[in-house]
Amino acid sequence: MKVLIDGTCSREFESVRGAFIDNLEQRGEIGAAVAVMLHGETVVDLWGGCKDSSTGEPWREDTIADFYSAGKPLIATLLLRELEKHSIDLDAPIATVWPQFAQAGKERATIRQALCHRAGVPAIRTELTNDNLWSWDTMTTALAETRPWFEPGSRHVYHTNTYGHLVGEMARRLSGLTPHELLANLSSDLGLDLHFGVASSDLERCAAIAWDSAQSPVALPPDDGGEGSMILRGYFNPPGYSSMGVVNTEEWRRAQVPSTNGHGSARGLAGFYAALLEPGKLLSESMIRESTSVQSSGPCPVLAQDVSFGLGFQPSTSKRPFGPDLTSFGHFGTGGAVGFADPGRGLAVGYVMNRVIPRWQSTCNRALISAVYASL
User: pLDDT tens, 195-242?
Assistant: First the structure.
């Protein structure tokens, strides 16, 4: 089916337009947007398809979408900026900035461990409700009280949803501002359309997410301390922690769940990574180098494969590449959203969409990335 697209695309990047059209017409995307910046200049800014498949409303220039884990580098960067501002070492205990976290065996867990998924709290043990999910203080208090699932620092386990509350609370403690306020300030300074907690005036711009499976929240079994219990609680405690059952509600869109419910545009993600390519604009050169390099690698029971983590960023690897150059860094999000930078080429890319498949890499984002590099 022929799909209407709009926006701009430099002649040299026409293959990206072609791949984007194919995503919408042949690869099953409902609505989407892609942005590419090269040496700070926007060379691709395209959008198309449906913002809401149930009504046929078109995706517009100002449509924003939930980009899931592609938001983890955003909340990590907000914390890293505060650490640099306050001259706090990455290997300082989390309790240095969040004293209440130092309980139940987490006293020596470090900020670095939190940023690279080694802090021991990929799930909250106390059973919570979705009403709790809308309360930042309730969520962070429950996380601080959680007994670690493993000795902090001994291994990594992807903190699928708790990551945003863990890292975001440290940023809040240091800045005195919520993740919503911190990202709003950064977005205002840089002219980016990125949000942790969508303002009431922007709710009508949100794309309706369509899950490509019958996934729904599950009843939690008793906490037996095992990995199965840990993984289920990581996804479904509170029941809507992964967005299931609540994704298109006003409560979800307005809440602050920085690991999972960041909303924004493709050009917003690309602009964020373009700013990171300018040392000193967001982070110092040394902090960019540290945070985008491998800090932890090995098997992960949540992702069910060997993975590598930086400090909030996914370093490009042969198994999960952003492009041919392994110095690239970024993060995928559930469904195929992605933002990344390639320092060697001065390249920054953002992609968002509203058809959610339960995996990160997809035929759609792979096709776009291949077309971007073929255009260089």
Answer: 999 999 999 999 999 986 655 667 888 888 899 999 999 999 999 999
Whole-number Å distance between alpha carbons of 218 and 181: 32
What three-state secondary structure class fits 76? Answer: helix
Position 83 in a domain = yes
CATH number of the domain encompassing residue 273: 3.40.710.10
Q: Give the residue-averaged pLDDT of 35-48.
A: 98
371: left (phi over 0), alpha (psi -120 to 50) or beta: alpha
How many domains is the chain partitioned into structurally? Answer: 1
Measure the CA–CA gap between 226 and 314, rounded to whole angstroms: 27
Q: What is the mean pLDDT of the chain?
A: 95
Domain residues for the domain of 298 are: 65-338
DSSP letter at 198 equals -
Domain assignment present for residue 15? The answer is no
Is 74 in contact with 194 (CB distance < 8 Å)?
yes
Q: Please give the pLDDT value at position 225.
A: 86
In which residue are the tokens 């037996």 written? 224
Q: Residue 46 falls within a domain, yes or no?
A: no
Q: Which of 165, 69, 68, 91 is nearest to 123 (CA)?
A: 165
